[in-house]
Amino acid sequence: MAKKQTAGSAPGQSKKLRSYTAAMAKLKPFPRIAFAVCALLCLIAFLPWLCIYNTDIPGIEIKVSGWNAFFCGLTGNLTVPGGVFGNMDTFNYFAPASCKPLALFGLLAYALLLAVLIMNGIMLSKKAQVLHLPAAILGLGAAVFTVLGFNAANSVNNSNILVEYCQSNPACSVESYAIITAILLIVAVIFNVIGAVKFFKARALLQ
pTM value? Predict the structure, then answer.
């Protein structure tokens, strides 16, 4: 009887395994898209998280990119001019209360973004689809810190930088493009969430 039960259960197990394999194969596009979005975000990080835009030029006079904010937060240097720090020294002179959180949020946002990028890269190479859930959580955290950085950048308007640095030139304004990063991060999160849901549904097929 035991032999009959074992033989009878084999086709059922084989069917479950085939269903699981088919379901896992359908997960391939999700880490690819999320990885591509994160890779794009690494390039978009060169856009200003904080800048002074002058319509008379027209163009950006001084700026702090996402990577500039990241390195300022990483090193704690807010007064060093140029290089990987951008023009944070100038903004920090007029609005230190805004620049300190901007650097901190930039550090946290891009540290999490890099972690998400690596996780999606691992899912592409090793097919460790279980990483969809932590990638989604970290991606959401990165989006939250990006929004906080966007708010910190906009709070520079409360300083006297436009009055003193721009000499009250109406053509000048404080701008931030960090919100673009936040929106694209949510896109990556959505694909990781979908991937996580489909992964756990696929796992359930083996039970």
Answer: 0.88
